[in-house]
Amino acid sequence: MNNNPLDIKTALVLQGGGALGAYQYGAVKCLYEEFPNFTPCIVTGVSIGAINAALIVGGKLGPVASLEAFWKTVEMPTVPFVPQDWQAKASKMGNPAMYTLNPMAFISPMTAMSTYDLGPMYQLMGNLIDFDKLNNNKDSKLSVEAVNVETGERTIFETRKGYEVKLEHIIASMSIPPNFPAAHIAENYYWDGGLFMNMPLSPAINYLEKVGDNDTQRNLIVINLFRKNSPMPTNFNQITERIQELMFESKINLDWKFFAKMNHYVDLVNAIDAVIPANSPIRKMPGYKDIAKHKKINHHAVLQYEAEGVAGTDDFTPDKMTLRIRTGYRDMEQALQEYKTALESAPN
Predict the structure, then answer these.
(1) Per-residue b or e along 232-245, where b marks 16 or more CB atoms closer than 10 Å to that residue's CB
(2) Is residue 188 a contact partner of residue 146, using CB atoms and an 8 Å limit?
(3) Which of 42, 187, 300, 320 has the fewest CB atoms within 10 Å, i.e. is most exposed?
(4) pLDDT for residue 191 is more than 60
(5) What is the pLDDT of residue 10?
(6) 9: helix, coil or strand?
(7) 154 and 197 in contact (C-beta within 8 Å)?
(8) DSSP states of 293-340
(9) C-beta of residue 30 within 8 angstroms of C-beta of residue 329
């Protein structure tokens, strides 16, 4: 394994999960404090993960300060003498920094297209993101996902030559129905990308395989927000919450055995490539050409937030925010220690 930091490329993958996204902020904060010059080659996100991703790549204040500004702004104030469980549900009536109740939901509930209006979110993100910086960031690529309402197809909005990611693309990725209205972009309407796939993994791996050469070390960091494990539900509300968790938690088990198998295939192709003639018909075989495109993923880390369930996605109270940030920071510390141990034990 090449230990030269100049030959390391890292992809950061951020799952959706509403207010649970503060966990991602805590993890990223730790990452940058441990490695001040950390620069992910790509950041992919869905829903709140797309918001965090955009702040990392194009935040006006820099990655950590922009995330901090966002999460401090959307935090709901504590109301004295009000029970905690009531305060946790206060955002059902709106979060002034993100969304307000849509009057049409009360005036004409049968014709209203959403429960809330996202005007405050557009303003907040517009204030925090430098879109020129985001679209012209030569070191970090941004990729966010939404789903086309009419076709049901996943749509990836990403920074690339000749294309600009705009505010409406980022908001589209978090427009979960029926809470939020569909984002109207060009001739299409888009909802939250988590409805299709709440884990934007493939754009991260595909891009990792395109950068660097065979000596490049490629790392993958995935931050999940929806817990996989939960006690058996005992009432209707818990059943509903568990259904939502199962719908939105990552269906992809990132097993190191999978990456090890792919790495073996890469080694095999490289060995074949070194001995067969340049005009060998093997080189023209579709299977050979497909495998030859793949590159090794040297290390991956999966952070999983397990402290709360789906009920926490709209809980913006200070205590819960602090819990998530601290837990994310702690989990990233542990992951980085494991990574350093792996580096120290690897052959040069």
Answers:
(1) eeeeeebeebbeeb
(2) no
(3) 187
(4) yes
(5) 95
(6) strand
(7) yes
(8) T-----EEEEEE--S--GGGGG---HHHHHHHHHHHHHHHHHHHHHHH
(9) yes
Q: What is the spatial distance between Cα 47 and Cα 24, in angstroms, rounded to a whole number?
A: 13
pTM of the model: 0.89
pLDDT recorded at residue 344: 62
Cα 132 from chain centroid (whole Å):
21
How high is the mean pLDDT of the chain?
A: 88
Residues 6+ apart with CB under 8 A from 325: 22, 23, 25, 26, 29, 71
pLDDT, one tens digit per residue, over 72-89 is 999 998 877 777 777 888
> Quick one: how far is CA 232 from the chain centroid?
28
* Residue 111 CB contacts under 8 Å (≥ 6 apart), including other chains: 104
More confident: 52 or 200: 52
Q: What are the b/e assignments for 87-112, b being 16+ CB within 10 Å?
A: bbebbeebbebbbbebeebeeeeeee
Choose the weakest-confidence range: 11-15, 64-68, 227-231: 227-231
Angle made by CA atoms 296, 208, 347, in degrees to the nearest 5: 35
Q: How many residues does the chain have?
A: 348
3-state SS, one letter per residue, for 171-213: HHCCCCCCCCCCEEECCEEEEEHHHCCCCCHHHHHHHHCCCCC
For the chain, helix (H) and strand (E) counts, in that order, are 13, 10
Asked whether 229 and 209 are in contact (CB, 8 A), the reply is: no
Among 289, 46, 21, which residue's Cα sits nearest to residue 174? Answer: 46
> Residue 159 contacts by C-beta under 8 Å, 6 or more apart in sequence?
57, 134, 135, 137, 141, 142, 143, 165
- Of all residues in the chain, what percent carry a pLDDT higher than 70? 93
**Using an 8 Å Cβ cutoff, are 167 and 149 in contact?**
no
Q: How far is CA 337 from CA 53, 74, 341, in A?
A: 24, 31, 6
Dihedral sign for Cα 146, 90, 119, 26, please.
negative
User: What does the pLDDT average to over 248-271?
Assistant: 71
